[in-house]
Predict the structure.
Amino acid sequence: MTTTEVAPAAMLPKTVNGVSVDDLFKIVDAIKATPSIAKFNFRIDNQWHDAAKNQSTVDTYFGAGQKQSRPKPFVLEADEPPVLLGTDSAANPVEHLLHALAACLTTSMVYHAAARGIRIEEVESSLEGDIDLQGFLKLDKNVRNGFQGIRVNFKIKADVPDEHLWEVCQLGPGHSPVFDSLTNGVPVSVSAERL
Amino acid sequence: MTTTEVAPAAMLPKTVNGVSVDDLFKIVDAIKATPSIAKFNFRIDNQWHDAAKNQSTVDTYFGAGQKQSRPKPFVLEADEPPVLLGTDSAANPVEHLLHALAACLTTSMVYHAAARGIRIEEVESSLEGDIDLQGFLKLDKNVRNGFQGIRVNFKIKADVPDEHLWEVCQLGPGHSPVFDSLTNGVPVSVSAERL
């Protein structure tokens, strides 16, 4: 078996990397039987406060065939640093994007490693991305508004030989919803009404 | 003047929408004089805890020609709900992505409205996106891993006539770094080493 093959469930311990492998394979079997339960819809509500300050509330989502909610809503803040005319009360939007990417790559790697019986002891990652404000400020039409490129470096401690470390790492980009969304793009529709 | 034209700085009050318009135009002038100071580099460090739990630390960035740091680092958490084998201790990665998009669209709209002298009183937005887990679980090769589509609805209270409300809203997608990154895609390079 290579590290990229999924192990038969019966061969695996019940929990790997903190992930219940039994439950993971139950989800897979349930979706195979009823593919429509794989359809999830995630949502947030955002409210502007002042200048660069705004906050999102995260609570309900639709998944596993029904509306789901959290014990209590999560609140996510955003701001900009003073050099970008904010008050530095929270991470800025593009830093939140990097967090979304890091979190999704890591969780995707850890879950898919668990499905293969690969124990991961530690994962750290550093992400950085370049933005040229000439895009946002429309000072140079050849400069894009967004990230010009993002670099991700993983440090992984796992019970695999050196030659399989890259295969384990690739389980992240190979499955991550945020990585796919960000590298391949997503259609985003925007509408507006008067408040 | 239409709502999409930038007003001469001398015609504007000093602060609009909480944004110092004086400082905004000083930034524009400084970048016109020295374009290299427009180059920013944002970064985060992420650490995995267990299963779907991980956290990012946000502190330093490079911008305005030098390394910058925050008074104290921001910590951003991530987890998954129980139906996705997590413990629901924080918003999940794709919800963080929606927060990044909402925050960036809102701030971009508010800043560029300020540059045009358009007062905005309130902004709310609701974002939702669809994901089919058959992609993440590799159960159907025709289903992508990421968001299939995202819908953003803004509610805006501003001192503009109805026919200009959509123009004001469009200042968000027209300038937002996260919107550009997500709709047009970003090259992401991934490397790994042993910890």
In short: The helical segments of chain A are 21-33, 93-115, 133-136, 162-175, 177-184. The first strand of chain A starts at residue 15 and ends at 16.
